[in-house]
Design brief:
Blueprint: E1 17-18, H1 24-27, E2 38-39
Length: 61
Amino acid sequence: KEKYGLEIEDKAIAEQIVPCEECYFCRRGLYHMCDVHEVFGVSGPSSTTSPINSCPATMGA
């Protein structure tokens, strides 16, 4: 709550690109151009069909 002003069960949105944080672009802060990114919410346990989603803490940094 202190950093983002959110509390448990608040609704929020997040960037859907999950960068690798290691490629040329990520190392320069250009994560939206990441060569090997994943797209959050498309597949896996955090897909858009999941009632509850979570994301890496680094996505909000």
